[in-house]
Amino acid sequence: MSNSSSLTQFLLLAFADRRELQLLHFWLFLAISLAALLANGLILSAVACDHHLHTPMGFFLLNLSLTDLGCICTTVPKAMHNSLWDTKTISYMGCAAQLFFFFLFILAEYYLLTIMCYDRYVAICKPLHYGTLLGSRACAHMAAAAWATGFLNSLLHTASTFSLPLCQGNALGQFFCELPHILKLSCSHSGYLRELGLIGVTASLSFSCFIFIVFSYVQIFRAVLRIPSQQGRHKAFSTCLPHLAVVSLFLSTATFAYLKPPSISSPSLDLMVSVLYSVVPPALNPLIYSLRNQELRDAIRKMMTTCFLRSNKVYLFFCRTLLV
To answer: How many Å apart are CA 19 and CA 229, to the nearest integer?
Structure first.
């Protein structure tokens, strides 16, 4: 038997045993991560550079893109490395860092989605108070609270989990360091109960956010249905559709991953579900928002056109210099 003081590394779950499939997973993850980095990078640049997007929703969308980038960069690179080099290991400190940052970004994203729901609620149900309730200082405070709450939760869970004695081996049934799979290696009853208590606090806070989101959308739908014109109802609803789609994708994948019946659990299914909630949402969120947000699409198009023209000017300058 081993304990946490003697553990130097963990064994992650491989996507496949065959070398050809491992390389296929590497290229697939590479494509997904590059698409996510490009899409979220474009949103970050567009929001930062275009003054038309300097709005509360634009500010929260910028923070959401940061959490999406963080989620992708926390889990995918190590999985790609292991698939490419046919290894399964991750160091003890690397596992702790991966758990901390994944918890930080995933919780911060959920809290930011809750705040963005409040933004849509105020915009539709209390439009006359929008500038007062969602001023620049209020937005900064709410975003800071989301990041700080995620950081504190992540720090407590990581410190509590890695202070437990681990004597059930070092094999994790997951492709990244995830809390439930690390807890399965513990042999401390009191420490396990302490971590379960922390999980209960985090779950209660998350459930409160869920109740707030549901209540807000009930009020939003009631307000939208009272709008007399069909065009006005469609415009109001279309502003909520991207957020509603992102929240639904986030909650459905995470809920199925953690609350699916044990009878249908298997290593291959668990692996597929973990990819669905840890990799797919960060890659799809930019697409969902850019498809329904005309201002964001215009800003990205303008930025890309400007970059293309500038690169052409630089290219022509160097050509003329070489010809002279």
So the answer is: 60
Specify the DSSP element, H or E, that contains 11. Answer: strand 9-11
Q: Can you tell me the distance from the alpha carbon of 94 to that of 114, in angstroms, rounded to the nearest whole number?
A: 30
Closest CA to 282 of 9, 95, 35: 35
Confidence bin at 1 (pLDDT 50/70/90): very low
Diameter of the chain by CA atoms? Answer: 78
Q: Of the given ranges (118-127, 171-180, 222-231, 270-279), which has the lowest mean pLDDT?
A: 270-279
Q: Assign 3-state DSSP to the chain and report helix, strand, coil percentages, each to 5.
A: 80, 5, 15
Could you tell me which of 127, 119, 131, 5 has the C-alpha nearest to residue 63?
A: 119
Distances from the Cα of 6 to the Cαs of 100, 104, 192, 213, in angstroms? 21, 27, 19, 45
Whose structure tokens read 């296929």? Answer: 24
**Phi and psi (nearest 5°) for 251?**
-70, -40
**Nearest in space to 239 (alpha carbons), one of 14, 56, 36, 32:** 56
DSSP codes, 216-284: HHHHHHHHHHT-SSHHHHHHHHHHHHHHHHHHHHHHHHHHHHHHS-GGG--HHHHHHHHHHHHTHHHHH
Q: Is the pLDDT of residue 3 over 60?
A: no
CA distance 197 to 192: 9
The helix or strand, by DSSP H or E, that contains position 166, with its residue range, turns out to be none
Report the C-alpha gap between 213 and 201 in whole angstroms: 19
Over residues 145-151, the mean pLDDT reads 95
Q: At residue 315, what is the residue type?
A: Y
Long-range contact pairs involving 148-154 (C-beta distance under 8 Å, separation at least 24): 149/107, 149/108, 149/111, 149/205, 150/103, 150/104, 150/105, 150/106, 150/107, 150/108, 150/111, 151/104, 151/108, 153/103, 153/107, 153/202, 153/205, 154/100, 154/101, 154/103, 154/104, 154/107
Q: What is the DSSP letter of 89?
A: E
pTM of the model: 0.85
Tokens of residue 119, six digits: 């933004």
